[in-house]
Amino acid sequence: MVQLFDKGRRPGGRVATRRLDGGLEFDRVEFDHGAQYFTVRHAEFEEWLRPSLERGQVAEWTGRLVSLSNGRTSPEPSPGRRYVGVPGMSAVAGGLAEGLSIHLSERVTRLERRGTEWWLQAESTGLCGPYQQVVCALPAPQGRELLRDQPAQFLSEMAGVALSPCWALLLHFAEALPVDFEGAFVADSPLRWIANNRSKPGRSSAECWVLHASPEWSQAAFDETPATIDTWLREALWQALDIKPREVRGTSSQRWKFAIPPAPLSSRYLHDAGLRLSACGDWCGGPRVEGAFLSGWELGRLLSQT
Ligand SMILES: Cc1cc2nc3c(=O)[nH]c(=O)nc-3n(C[C@H](O)[C@H](O)[C@H](O)COP(=O)(O)OP(=O)(O)OC[C@H]3O[C@@H](n4cnc5c(N)ncnc54)[C@H](O)[C@@H]3O)c2cc1C
Question: Quick one: pLDDT at residue 128?
Answer without folding.
Answer: 96
